[in-house]
Amino acid sequence: MTKTDHTPLLQLRDVRKQYSIRTGLGLGEPLTVTAVSRVSLTLRQGETLGLVGESGCGKSTLARLILGLEKPTSGDIHYRGGRLDEWRRLDLRRRMQMIFQDPFASLNPRQKIGDIVEEGPLIHHMGSRKERKEAVLQLLGMVGLSPEYANRYPHEFSGGQRQRVAIARALALHPELVVCDEPVSALDVSIQAQVLELLADMRKRFDLTYLFISHDLSVVGHVCERAAVMYLGSLVEEGPTESMFADPLHPYTKALLAAAPIPDPDAARRRAKLSGDPPSPIDPPGGCPFHPRCNQAFEPCSRVAPQLAERAPGRRTACHLYDPEHQATLATTAAKETL
Ligand code: ADP
Ligand code: MG
Q: What's the half-sphere exposure (Cβ side, CA atoms, 13 Å) at 63?
């Protein structure tokens, strides 16, 4: 069984991140990209929370904010009840670790595997040299790599093996939170399941909390107890994966599920097709960010941004379809359509 104990480990309140960019020759006024737009989210101790959404919706930006690698433009992030920016940097670096999508880019090609795994403990002065070397060999064994590999270089390994090294490196510091950003997206399908299984084993063994980022809903359904769905920088739905997958609330979640290769007995869900690309975060649509692509949009959607609110036990969504304030309009619209 999992050890989720409902204590909030990480809390995001109204977190927004904007970037200024210059296009073309860099002349003229800079443009503003809103990569993350007012996200509120809680990660509980011991859980695996999935963060899903199409490419460019702000998942990696949110990950960098959580890890303290970048500062939010507004809003705040609390870790273990304390403001993230008040934690000592080195302390956070130990407590939070990250596993990246591309194990080719994330491992230094000039470092031996053993040194890669030992680097964190060395920086944090953990144990004696002998103890560290022993711990490295033990970790390599745990992630399914032969201890002899400690003296080899990353180029000698396959993508799946490199991801195992990245996992060993992350675990070497005994972290509390591991942010996995598309950890299997770059791997062959046949290898993905093995790496996911390893991540699940390590979570149990070390009592870890995961933020698991993926554009692939079926992967999230396999490994996460809870999921948050992101669209154009905003959360549109959040709740337990089981009930969300069985009965998605937000039209965007429905569309994502319709496109995912998951057995689907629900015909209504199949009708909800997603066409076109998400709009640009430089000039996002007013009202609900999803309304231009939504097949259930009605009067308030282009005008008012819906708030994320609990609409079923333990389940939150940001959609006017469930907003009591707009039920009357919805009924009138539906009546007109049937005439
Ligand atoms: P995802 O990980 O979901 O694919 P990202 O968080 O990488 O999305 O990006 C979200 C949006 O923010 C994209 O439009 C991206 O181009 C933009 N973005 C991310 N980082 C920067 C940056 N440093 N400067 C400007 N724009 C950025
Ligand atoms: Mg990303």
A: 26
Region 131-135 average pLDDT: 96
Residue with the bigger pLDDT between 264 and 293: it is: 293
Average pLDDT over residues 145-153: 96
- In angstroms, rounded to a whole number, what is the distance separating the alpha carbons of residues 68 and 88? 10
Name all domains of the chain by residue range, CATH numbers in brackets.
8-224 (3.40.50.300), 251-339 (no CATH)
The CB of 61 under 6 Å from ligand 1? The reply is yes
Ligand 1 atom index nearest CA of 282: 14
Place of tokens 């549109």: 236
Q: Which of 15, 16, 19 to mutate to test the pocket of ligand 1 (most atoms within 8 A of CB)?
A: 19
| Confidence at residue 106, expressed as pLDDT on a 0 to 100 scale | 86
Global confidence as pTM: 0.92
Kindly state if the Cβ of 58 falls inside 6 Å of ligand 1: yes
* Most informative mutation of 57, 61, 220 for ligand 1 (most atoms within 8 A of CB): 61
Separation between Cα atoms, residue 213 and residue 338, nearest integer Å: 41
Question: 56 in ligand 1 pocket by Cβ < 6 Å?
Answer: yes
C-alpha 46: how far from chain center: 16
Distance CA 52, CA 187 (A): 18
Mean pLDDT of the chain: 91
- Segment 171-189 shows an average pLDDT of 95
What pLDDT sits at residue 1? 43
